[in-house]
Automatic annotation (TrEMBL):
The keyword Nucleotide-binding applies. One of its GO terms (molecular function) is P-type divalent copper transporter activity. It comes from Ammoniphilus oxalaticus. It is found in: Cell membrane. This is Copper-exporting P-type ATPase. Belongs to the cation transport ATPase (P-type) (TC 3.A.3) family. Type IB subfamily.
Length: 734
């Protein structure tokens, strides 16, 4: 049985670490998929739990030198502890490095005016204060490098260990072989400061990087902060009592007072208030709530008191689903990450080869027999080329981008959709509930036998089994005429056409005129003329048949959403081809198209046909995005390169698309496209910096133009710069 779990992984320090975990875990029997994210320090494992358990995977990861556990809320405390340890390691290392830096000034002519105490130039003193940096604080690098080599790979720690060990042990050799000789200690070229500088700068870089990475999780933190731990149970006699939110169940009644957060999803039984849903949906205007209104966990009751019946458990709420989707998106990889993964898989061995070649060329050809110069060049090459920036280039941007999207009510299911959306050439829109409000009103009715009440009694019974916006409109009209509806049996939706059911023993069909013609149900001539007239007026027409005989006509009109025209115009200005596919009639479709400026329209299209049209568009025009309500558009949303589900009212349809817009607003689709493009631009900037940094700095290090201590500083700050660049997405204007 297939299962997907998230695990927390600590101890990763470069992309090679994440690649190694993926490679080793993927070879385990029963593991069907593994994605490890360096930035979030999480892994998503898909496995057959009858073959392997998540604990087996955790044990495997721990056996190769990393810490792993099932993802949970204790992560924040662990992170803060790790950050504190890292901070003190850096402080101690920096304090011990200061005397070495002071002594290093003796090598520079421009610093001849600086007085340097003789003690600082003593090789034994330098050896003594470097030992804690190299062998105590730096032991972590040796440990991780050894574990990497044991599993048949090399990583950043390998390069750090090789470079610092070369500097430290060469200096150690010179220190003790010249101890009882007449050689002046001040004339000996030692590299203790090189070892100390490299480790200190790496620790500083890791500290700044860790702090910056914590900022990338702000979006998910804000979502967690929306959750409340306790709710107030409300009894019918008016008594109140606290209860943990995770113990609430559907049917419980709670009370939410003014200024309090709604603790769980539910339906208002009593009371009226304005509820702020901004942190959940990105909409700044509070929503009015009254009897029968749906309310969601994490929203804030601004005024008034609400008595609410719980409709979902804590783990099933809209907020819980949003948190899960955002976490999964931040853990997943964008396809462009494969470039970095392939490079980092071979990068470290190549750099070691280049470093050895540099040493050989320098020692044998450029400066024959000058060991210190050759060693210095080799150390600089090893340390400058750590692939940290390359590994962080994609995941940090995906993490910040998907978090930024969640803040404005846009949910990306996976990182790949964040990449693909920006490449779309065509966006296909459904009409009802996507371009229009999805709250149509009945405008005209025609009953063949004249008995309107009996007609709506049967029609209302059938449509009560449907949640489609048109069915809801018919139900509202029916309730104005009928108090109680009979039972509808064997109710069945006809996707893209309508509904059928048996009411009072009579087979009843309600559908669009096209389906009537396909079923060869006779429509009187005067009724046909009425249908044509209504359709030309841009209205949606449904026809009813009872016992296979024409019974009547209902015409429905829907209003455009306020943002539809401007959103479609903005998409076209971005060079995206916009098309409308609808199951509605041609006249109604053309009426909406004229108002919104859409040039390409196909009407009378059933759901399966929408999927076929999208497949044809993909062959001709490349990447195609489908935007629909997530109810009737499931086939099209699945087939499209990216399916965007527009949430409408209480039915947010979170699970329906690759991307979900929580509130049904087309302007959010524009924002999603812009954010996708901004994220990809950010990733490319990160890649460009990471590649150029290595391309420029490695030759400088090879020819001795970059001192090892400076190489350590540049390498450390390259990683920090990538994270800081990704953080700019938090401020991006969409």
């Amino acid at each position: 049985m297939k299962e997907t779990d998230q695990i927390q992984i600590s101890g990763m320090h470069c992309a090679a670490c994440a690649t190694r975990i993926e490679r080793i875990v993927s070879k385990m029997d029963g593991v069907q998929g593994v994605q490890v994210n360096l930035t979030t320090e999480k892994g998503r494992i898909t496995f057959d739990k009858q073959v392997v358990s998540i604990q087996d995977v955790i044990q495997k990861i721990m056996s190769i030198g990393f810490k792993a556990s099932i993802a949970g809320e204790q992560q924040a405390n662990t992170k803060h502890h790790e950050l504190t340890v890292l901070k003190w390691q850096f402080i101690v290392s920096a304090l011990l490095t200061i005397p070495l830096a002071w002594a290093m000034l003796s090598h520079f002519q421009w610093a001849s005016f600086v007085t340097i105490p003789a003690l600082l130039l003593n090789p034994l003193f330098q050896f003594a204060i470097t030992i804690p940096i190299q062998l105590i604080i730096g032991f972590q690098f040796y440990e991780r490098a050894w574990l990497a080599l044991k599993s048949g790979s090399a990583n950043m720690d390998t390069l750090v260990v090789l470079s610092t060990s070369a500097a430290f042990f060469y200096s150690h050799y010179l220190t003790f072989t010249t101890l009882h000789t007449p050689i002046d200690p001040q004339t000996i070229v030692l590299f203790y400061e090189t070892s100390a500088f490299i480790i200190t700068f790496i620790l500083l870089g890791k500290l700044l990087e860790a702090r910056a990475k914590m900022k990338t999780t702000e979006a998910i933190k804000k979502l967690y902060q929306l959750q409340t731990k306790t709710a107030t149970l409300y009894a019918m006699d008016g008594t109140e009592s606290p209860l943990a939110v995770d113990q609430l169940a559907p049917g419980h009644v709670i009370i939410v007072k003014s200024g309090e957060k709604v603790p769980i999803d539910g339906q208002v039984l009593k009371g009226n208030s304005m509820v702020d849903e901004s942190l959940l949906t990105g909409e700044s205007i509070p929503i009015e709530k009254g009897n029968g209104s749906s309310v969601y966990a994490g929203t804030v009751n601004q005024n008034g008191t609400l008595i609410i019946e719980v409709t979902k458990r804590d783990s099933e709420t809209t907020l819980s689903q949003i948190i899960r989707i955002v976490e999964e998106a931040q853990t997943s990889k964008a396809p462009i990450q494969q470039i970095a993964d392939k490079i980092t898989g071979v990068f470290v061995p190549i750099i070691i080869g280049i470093a050895l070649l540099t040493f050989a060329l320098s020692y044998l050809l450029l400066e024959p027999a000058t060991l210190s110069s050759a060693l210095e060049k080799m150390i600089a090459v090893l340390i400058i080329a750590c692939p940290c920036a390359l590994g962080l280039a994609t995941p940090t941007s995906v993490m910040v981008g998907s978090g930024r999207a969640a803040q404005v009510g846009i949910l990306f299911k996976e990182g790949k959709f964040l990449e693909v959306l920006g490449k779309a050439t065509t966006i296909v829109l459904d009409k009802t509930g996507t371009i229009t409000k999805g709250e149509p009103q009945v405008t005209d009715t025609y009953v063949h036998d004249g008995n309107e009440r009996a007609f709506f009694e049967i029609v209302g019974a059938v449509e009560s089994a449907s949640g489609h916006p048109i069915a809801n409109a018919i139900m509202r009209a029916a309730r104005q005429r009928v108090v109680k509806f009979p039972q509808a049996n064997q109710a069945e939706a006809i996707p893209g056409y309508g509904m059928q059911a048996t009411v009072n023993g009579q087979q009843t069909l309600i559908s669009n005129p096209t389906y009537f013609m396909e079923q060869k149900i006779h429509i009187p001539r005067d009724a046909k003329r009425m249908i044509t007239k209504l359709e030309r007026a841009g209205k949606t027409v449904v026809v009813a048949a009872i016992q296979s005989r024409f019974a009547g006509i209902i015409a429905i009109a829907d209003e455009l959403k306020p943002s539809s025209c401007s959103a479609i115009s903005r998409l076209r200005k971005m060079g995206i081809d916009v098309m409308m596919l609808t199951g509605d009639n041609q006249a109604a479709a053309q009426s909406i198209a004229r108002k919104t400026g859409i040039n390409k329209v196909q009407a009378n299209v059933p759901p399966q046909r929408k999927a076929e049209i999208i497949q044809t568009l993909q062959k001709k025009r490349g990447k195609v995005v489908m935007v629909g309500d997530g109810i009737n558009d499931a086939p099209a949303l699945t087939v499209a390169d990216v399916g965007i589900a527009i949430g409408t009212g209480s039915d947010i349809a979170i699970e329906s698309g690759d991307i979900t817009v929580i509130k049904g607003d087309l302007s959010k689709v524009v924002e999603a496209v812009k954010l996708s493009k901004a994220t990809m631009t950010n990733i490319k900037q990160n890649f460009a910096w990471a590649f150029l940094y290595n391309l420029i700095c490695i030759p400088f290090a090879m020819f001795g133009l970059l001192a090892p201590w400076l190489a350590g500083a540049v390498m450390a700050f390259s990683s920090v710069s990538v994270v800081l660049n990704a953080l700019r997405l938090q401020k991006s204007r969409i």
